[in-house]
């Protein structure tokens, strides 16, 4: 069960109302790497988790991410305060209003016209948040890796936002949020490696013929190699047109069917067969004015 | 530049046409953890990459994932061959057709009616693939972690598909595809750790006050701890209602505005003020039949 | 700031693992009328709100909805417990596994194969949750009405779920959740009517020529009227082809342009002009085999 | 069956071609609160409705909303007329074209490059319209409340657009459209309250233990109350960590399973168990350069 | 301006309530090839069109498609009539209700639980309709081709639905709707070829070096050719690894930058450089238990 | 199986780093008419195709579109090179960074902040690519028409991008890509017309009563006709309110139900009946302050 306290996890002091900056901050409110995604990711994992320690950790961090969502959403709301009143009250001339809404140089017009200056769950392009951002699949050796990656991404987006903000209060709060992503990544790393073994993820082993093979699929000079495909642990296999398939069989696809299905399929193939030896007049040729004198020109 | 060879990377032998199984296989064709997602993920990273070795690796693996997309899509196409002809040619009675399309027990009706038995870029629920599945952000210490996690997820979904298929040819091809996810994860791990240092990701360091802190946000018994929040490297901080905010300030949000904006905002607040001391008749009360005699019952 | 307690707001006792029922329950977890939508709706409104009383109410109810999200998500997780283990461990034969996953008769195959039996933020069709479900626009006379409607919808979907569940523990928890939607609707109603006036919403008055007019746009017998278009407060205007436009002007659209733009537009119109007096040979006619003898048959 | 007349419901006179303003107008064409959403909402309700009077009303208003869609779409088309020709004919220098497309300060570049200056069904951020905006659930006590709210929202977005337009012809047409939302809201209100009773929505009553309870979930000073949680009709219950669960039971979740399922689940839990007493070396520590000398520093 | 008549364009007689069949019919109501897509496609084109004849045609056909939307939506509503009452009134036992909702074998559970048996704007998988289905770009030589293709697709999906329906009234109405797609395709074909020339679409000519070239990108035996790449009008160019690039230059990408930008980019490349000669210990190796003895095994 | 060569299909020389232009180019990378859509469209068709010649053609063109995706993505990456380094390294002042990111006048802020200057699979508005863009339905007479239309659209969007680029290297590469769309359209046209007959698409013939009928649905002066509805092949039928339905029957919808279902439906209708003769007090009237003195004013 959740509880709320009116104090934020971190104090927010915004120096100046600025709807353009508010719009950029939406990346970490309703964007793919933002706090709603983080909170939902860990919360749903916690509900499904059967290891009591990981369950507690996931719920703790999820709850903290909700508190971060409140911090970043509050920053957005504060940055929008001035704009919110102006449009609702219609106190400027229409021409001034249009200029101030369109002149921000980013998508803050959407936040203002559609969302009235509140903090909507969209990213800085106005794209609504979607659970398609969440990649939880219910297996901890995969989900913890997903969480580690998610924290790394969120850390970077905060870093970018810090780099383009000169409001010291906003900068400080963003610095706090960014730091917490580092701490969370560390926790998820500990939880992953406390599972022994955790690689390969899941239960089934790989096929030993292909576990240590690196297929070079991209030819051309120069070729750069590194620890990801060189060294004794790797079989480095440069693929050519002749190397397909890797199983040494035909490389073709086959399916067995009932005779009735096969006959029906042949009927369909016959009905939709193209005549390879024709040179039919086409719509494109009609469109070039070749309908009558056919095949006399090129576009 | 890409080239194609008509032989598959791995030979596909399907034992029996089965549109229900085809539908489940779509998870790895047009699903979030599937091969299109993998190919697009590494391809877009390769285009933006400035390290020549990583760029080569990303393009190699992307090209292989395209080849896997062809393998899994071919499995789908083969499993659908029988159904495809039947609906197109209308050779069964309508009642039989309806039963065979609706009785599969999963969403294969969509694949058949809407997509005609071809392999569409949707998951097994019929949800169209979206680039929202791709979490690339253009910073290698984050993107490589995202790739590691993506390979782990794909490995698991293949494992699940293997667990519910008893067609030996399908099983074998899925086993190949699953194994390659293991090999790719290993390559991405090598590439990540060949960047020194790679943690914290990005350039800005964290705020040392909060980097090693674990906030316990979820109370209640029993409490389970582990290496993610215990040991000398962690400051374990149980949060209570009194601990907000963690910066020791007010925990409130403030913004500075021009006096004009502030006045406009006050005007809006006054216009939309709720009267806390009223007890207004409401629509719900009207809806309970309390419009005239007001507040005499409860729903 | 948020806090969490390990006890649920309402005790959950599930009588029997049932992934098919779990899948239906997803409507109120990750569906459009579900608890995540409710929590996000009120939370974002609370952040933007300038009336202190409404802000408190919105945050209270949002926090409770998060607690409901935990209850319904826990129901899903419990209903899936049996299935989760079976697929992860691969303990059944593949054929049995396929039957149990495909035979449920609804989309539980997605929950199991893609999400591993955890509670994903999707609806019962597997469609990922999207913030497009949230209709907050940052104006309380509209948002409170949206909230009233949202609570009414959620109440109904719970009612439907109760009608198709015979597990007494699930039924009881759903009954609690359904009841709280009633209570929340009542609070939002009070908050709306504590704003005086609240209709028309916003600040601008309507044009008195059209505020009380009902346009009958749909003709044919029989015609049914009611308080929504009859009585002294309504001008009932049956529209005919002759009544357009309602402003008594031309009903046409005009725009003024610079002469340069107008000339460019004319050039484009000329370039893309269709010849109304031609009878061109078309691709469809080619496709019917009429390319040479043109216009002699019909499909 | 539908019919169309070439005259608009309201005459449109646009003073000046302006693609930036056109882009903002898209909110009411293809945006969530726009006319397509309104028309589709009432049309689908009309098809499913069993009350003849409401069915007529819904079809009337749906048809009028289609006519409004035509008015607002025509405004967009007129505002784009100049830009449409210029890009299609390539009559300006590329540099001028780039400036005029990018310099508008909002997303009009999308409308021009992708949609060629026509009116696309997207909002002002370029997000395609989705039926996820429509919240109809097929129960009139809920749907009518949704309609009331939808009209209130549409009224407000028109008000905002009016506040930032100084073209008198556009302003006048927007004023007409805004006014009609007021009239429609009034009709839907009448239809709702002509159902007696209409609260609680649906058929099942609430649980009397929780119908009049207000749970205070958010603590901290100051506390603001109002008619939504004070007065004799409310039980005001301040929740603390000790109050969970509200049913007085354990607040825990349980599920009964077959012994076979339970054993499989235990096997999975054992396989994926984390070792709470370990202090494993992690990838993050490797990434900080701690692989060999382990646990000697912090990021 | 639109008008409505209560009579359908085509009489609908449904023989038997059948929610499973209703669900399949949704493909042509809220699916990608359905009537809403058709109506919106032509309606938005009509608004932007500058040729008076095409504008009239587009509005005529759009209006007819709206009338078709009403016919197919009415079929859905009629097929759902029985189910709608049962769930709303809760007249069956919960177990019977669950079976009847889950046993349909397709996604009708969504239509019933979430949409209450009304006709929602989703496809047969429950995926909400999106304007991403509409491919209008505001250039008639392209849009008319898109319309021709859209009518062909809609014709086919109707054909499939006819093939699996044995209700004679439904079959007859579907036959009417299918036929009208044929007629509409014919109209759009006439309109396309009444533009002379219409190929290549748009204004800019192609580069004559590449207009008649067919690049063979896919090698392997057997090779099948046809009128699309053989005959005197085609230059057939088999591509090999050596043929890139086709312009005879380097095939590399270059960009000019300010020296400051170049220096910053170099700094970033240095910071994120991977060490190609390392053989780092990785997280995967830790996960295999190789943290201490490093590089001694394989998964 | 796919292979890759490091040389592009066409050499890319970008004259100047320009993130604003990069953003516009995204239309053909991750936009609806872009190269990913093209490649996926033909690739999925190739997998399902049963005609060997068409299958080869589809795979050839799909492979070339992948190569185009690489060309356009490389252009995006090159145009972003300068911006990418600046934000990652934080070398400018925050205020300069903010200005350069927000001042571009289009959505390049998203590409930079969220995607770090890499080429994301989004369109120029930042909307993620979705498989909903792909309209393949698995029937060649429809799919080839869809392909023809898709090539026409892609050609036009390239033409627009060429019209607003003055970088000669970018212009040249775009010219190549545009030209190839022309060549591909020609191939698809040949393949369509090599199927004889190909109209009407599919197998079922139309109903001869309605195949050649044009319904005039839109009245009002002036009326423009053309080859799409005049000439001896057309029956031109002006529809009036009296002409519905076209089948000469009642134009009403009926469904047969079991008596039990009918009784349940009647019960539901009675429960949710509106009282047509009431004049209920409504929430809107309460909101206007009419709660006590009812019906005395208008908004």
> Strand-residue fraction of chain A?
5-15%
Can you tell me the residue ranges of chain A where pLDDT is under 50 for at least 5 consecutive residues?
A: 293-299
Strand tally of chain A is 6
Q: Helix count of chain A, per DSSP?
A: 10
What string gives the helices and strands of chain A in order?
EEHHHHHHHHEEEEHH
What is the helix content of chain A? 40-55%
Query: Separation of termini of chain A?
Result: 69 Å
Spatial shape of chain A: extended
Oligomer: homohexamer
Which chains share the greatest interface?
A: A-B, 123 and 123 residues
Rg of chain A, Cα atoms, Å: 29 Å
User: Largest sheet of chain A at a glance?
Assistant: 2 strands, parallel
Based on secondary structure, the structural category of chain A is mainly alpha
Average pLDDT across residues of chain A?
93
Provide structural commentary.
The structure is a homohexamer of 299-residue chains. Chain A has ten helices and six strands; from the N terminus they run E-E-H-H-H-H-H-H-H-H-E-E-E-E-H-H. The first copy, chain A, has helices at 19-25, 27-30, 35-48, 52-89, 94-102, 108-113, 140-163, 168-193, 259-271, 283-287; strands spanning 2-5, 12-14, 213-216, 218-219, 235-238, 253-255. The first copy, chain A, has a two-stranded parallel ribbon. In chain A, helix 3 runs antiparallel to helix 7. The longest helix of chain A is centred in the N-terminal third of the chain and has 38 residues, at 52-89. Mean pLDDT of chain A is 93; it is low at 293-299. Chains in contact: A-B, A-C, A-D, A-E, A-F, B-C, B-D, B-E, B-F, C-D, C-E, C-F, D-E, D-F, E-F. Chains B and E meet through strand 1, helix 6, helix 7, helix 8 and helix 9 of B and helix 1, helix 8, strand 4, helix 10 and helix 11 of E. Strand 4 (218-219) of chain A pairs parallel with strand 1 of chain F, so a sheet runs across the interface.
């Amino acid at each position: 069960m959740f509880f709320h306290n009116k104090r934020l996890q971190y104090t927010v002091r915004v120096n100046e109302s600025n709807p353009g900056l508010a719009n950029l901050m939406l990346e970490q409110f309703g964007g793919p790497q933002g706090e709603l995604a983080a909170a939902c990711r860990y919360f749903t994992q916690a509900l499904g988790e059967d290891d009591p320690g990981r369950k507690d950790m996931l719920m703790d961090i999820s709850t903290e991410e909700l508190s971060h969502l409140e911090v970043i959403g509050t920053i957005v709301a504060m940055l929008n305060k001035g704009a919110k009143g102006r449009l609702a009250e219609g106190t400027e001339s229409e021409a001034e209003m249009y200029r101030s809404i369109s002149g921000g140089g980013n998508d803050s017009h959407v936040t203002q016209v559609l969302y009235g200056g509140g903090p909507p769950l969209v990213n800085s392009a106005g794209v609504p948040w979607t659970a398609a951002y969440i990649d939880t699949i219910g297996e901890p050796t995969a989900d913890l890796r997903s969480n580690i990656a998610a924290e790394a991404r969120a850390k970077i987006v905060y870093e970018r936002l810090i780099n383009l903000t000169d409001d010291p209060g906003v900068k400080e709060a963003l610095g706090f949020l960014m730091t917490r992503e580092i701490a969370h990544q560390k926790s998820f790393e500990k939880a992953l490696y406390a599972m022994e073994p955790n690689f390969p993820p899941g239960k089934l082993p790989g096929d030993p013929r292909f576990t240590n093979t690196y297929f070079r699929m991209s030819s051309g000079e120069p070729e750069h190699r590194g620890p990801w495909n060189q060294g004794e642990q790797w079989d480095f296999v440069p693929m050519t047109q002749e190397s397909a398939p890797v199983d040494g069989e035909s490389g073709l696809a086959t399916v067995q069917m009932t005779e009735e299905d096969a006959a029906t399929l042949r009927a369909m193939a016959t009905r939709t067969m193209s005549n390879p030896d024709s040179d039919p007049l086409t719509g494109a040729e009609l469109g070039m004015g070749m309908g009558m004198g056919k095949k006399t020109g090129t576009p």
